[in-house]
Amino acid sequence: MTLFRGTFIDTPENPFTGGALRVATDAALVVKDGVIVARGPYAELRAAHPAEPTVDLTGGVVLPGFVDTHVHFPQIRAVGGLGMPLLEWLDRYALPEEARMADVDYATGVADEFVRGLAAAGTTSALVFGAHYSDAVDVLFTAASRVGLRITSGLVVSDRLLRPELLTSPARAYTESLALAERWHGVGRNRYAVTPRFSLSCTDDLLAACRTVLDEIPGSLFTSHVNENEAEIANVTELFGGSDYVSTYDRHGLVNRRSVLAHNVHPTDVELKMLAEGGATIAHCPTSNAALGSGLFPLARHLQHGVRVALGSDVGAGTGFSLLKEGLQAYFVQRLLGEQGCPLTAAHLLHLATTAGAEAIGLDAEVGDLSVGKRFDAQLLRPADGSPLAVSVAHAEDAEEALARIFTLGTPADVHAVWIDGHLLHH
Ligand code: GUN
Ligand code: ZN
């Protein structure tokens, strides 16, 4: 057993439905076998457990580990390709890099950078878009297992319109996906995600094969892209005989509680209704939407329809791993939407980056906040003395204001330490 002493901030009660930020100052969490077994004032818990070791985290703020619900492993070296809209960016920038994943040595280097990048940003769980090559997905799961991250990922599949070396067939997609799931699903903290790239690059036969794979792997997730860019949407409508984008997945039974679809910047009300009824989650990726000029995310319409929303970094169209930056950008977008925007506070941003993400990927019984019974997946934000964040937080009136300053000024450099299941990852 270990006591962790410090200031803990989390969002067990949803701020979008009236819940308040939870702040525990000079508090302690008692962690046993990776699970939080008690929480309360430090003095009380110290007295109750006089012989147990204490890890002193005072002088910073402890948050739950972030949950990134949309991030591309093969694109880490493609961050920063500015100035292109989605389809041009894919063809000229992202997909040539994805093709390099055919080389296992290259993929190994990228996987190593990727898992370190996530952990350094305070991300402890992620739904990861894998590679189009089975061996590269093996390499990712191997790297994630070494670091100890909670990764859900899988083989990315497509059978039309991309460069030829990235294409597969429905039969091959089925066989390779099941073989990967056999090796990795439920092994350690790894889980499998069925991952067609987007319906633009997938025939109905391939999407049907995806559904079969999802049915054959209990507890696996489904992830893809939807309604990101106007030109993309027009092409999808044409290829699928006038169908809306969400229906291209829904008609194969792929819009449900196990589904996480990235973007949805341009949905119709009919599509929002379908997403809400299915229980699917939208991974909102605000820096990606801004960098590619995809548009301003209609969060208020999602909430009005009861569609679940969480946050994704969408590296490499997104501009980095930090969900602090994604939270701030989500806030900016809602401000820019004026009357149509949804006003966001620091509590909303933290909820989107933690609890909402855990709910999206079905890990909410285990992680997402720091309640008794949850696993101790956490990060210590402790900026260096004299840094802009340290100076700012020193003048914050209360914990909520400090959290707003953390989202505004914080970077991975301010993430001092990260734990998963109570084990220290990164210092
Ligand atoms: N749609 C299909 N593939 C991708 C991708 O890699 N990034 C983004 N942002 N959108 C996509
Ligand atoms: Zn993406």
UniProtKB/TrEMBL annotation:
Binds 1 zinc ion per subunit. Keywords: Hydrolase, Metal-binding, Zinc. Its cofactor is Zn(2+). It is an enzyme of class 3 (hydrolase). Pathway: Purine metabolism; guanine degradation; xanthine from guanine: step 1/1. It comes from the Bacteria. GO terms for biological process: guanine catabolic process. Residues 27-51 form the Aminodeoxyfutalosine deaminase/Imidazolonepropionase-like composite domain. Residues 61-424 form the Amidohydrolase-related domain. One of its GO terms (cellular component) is cytosol. The keyword Zinc applies. It catalyses: guanine + H2O + H(+) = xanthine + NH4(+). One of its GO terms (molecular function) is guanine deaminase activity. Its EC number is 3.5.4.3. Belongs to the metallo-dependent hydrolases superfamily. ATZ/TRZ family. Catalyzes the hydrolytic deamination of guanine, producing xanthine and ammonia. This is Guanine deaminase. The lineage of its organism: Bacteria, Bacillati, Actinomycetota, Actinomycetes, Propionibacteriales.
